[in-house]
Amino acid sequence: MKEQKVWKVNGFLAILLVLLLLAGAIYLFLKLHIIAGILATLATVLLFSGITIVQPNQSRVVTFFGKYLGTIRDNGMWMTVPLTVGKKVSLRVRNFNSAKLKVNDVEGNPVEIAAVVVFKVVDSARAVFDVDNYEEFVEIQSETALRHVATKYPYDTFEDEGYSLRGNAEEVAAELARELQTRLAVAGVEVIEARLTHLAYATEIASAMLQRQQAAAIVSARQKIVDGAVGMAQMAITQLQQNGVVELDEERKVAMINNLMVAIVSDRSAQPVINTGSLY
């Protein structure tokens, strides 16, 4: 199915014509022209059956004894083919908030995820005829696409390699919108935006994953501290030698590096030991 325009004329002109026919039918009955009056009455009823009202941001899908004739998108009062049936379809932008779904990420960890989908109908014929209920179709396909996207990525990457659900929310949302658009095109629906609204580890593993994140953060911090301590020790020895402050042999260099590394890397403040030399 593909949306098309249907024949229509201004509804106020149709009302005027209906009133004229009705007045003519009454006049014919008063003049005892029964058959002509009946025909005028039937014409009045037929014309009146084709009058319809379309609200702003709404369309009306017109069918004639099961045959799709077209769609009225212009708001106002119109007259179309008599004896037709019209179905209203909202063209307004709408939101769908999915429920919190429990899915397994690519590493098999159970996570809770939810999303909001902003959409609107762009082809009323497909929305009415190609799917049974396009609103229910949007809900089911949104949750299906969300599950599929969530299973393609890990919740988090501790080695900073590749995409993750937590670290690449924009990219994940863009992929979710693309997949939704592919799934919902058959229903004549355009996906305006899709965003994650909830993302968390499932309750049964949340504590363990929190400990893992803390451990990874500690290891990363320690690595930076060690890298900085090595650089500071090298810089201290180089400056002492260049300025000729003190002559250091290999043994003293090792001792100095050891002291600097302990002082910088240690969790606690270093306790200085003052060497005053020998008393004898």
From TrEMBL:
A Pfam match: Band_7
CDD domains for this protein: SPFH_like_u2
InterPro entries: Band_7, Band_7/SPFH_dom_sf
SUPFAM superfamilies, per the entry: Band 7/SPFH domain
Transmembrane regions listed in the UniProt entry: 12-29, 35-54
Source taxon at top rank: Bacteria
Organism: Desulfocucumis palustris
Tagged with keyword Hydrolase: yes
Protein name stated in the entry: Membrane protease family protein
Molecular functions (GO terms): peptidase activity
Segments forming domain Band: 49-213
One BP annotation, GO: proteolysis
Keywords assigned: Hydrolase, Membrane, Protease, Transmembrane, Transmembrane helix
Keyword Transmembrane helix appears in the UniProt entry: yes
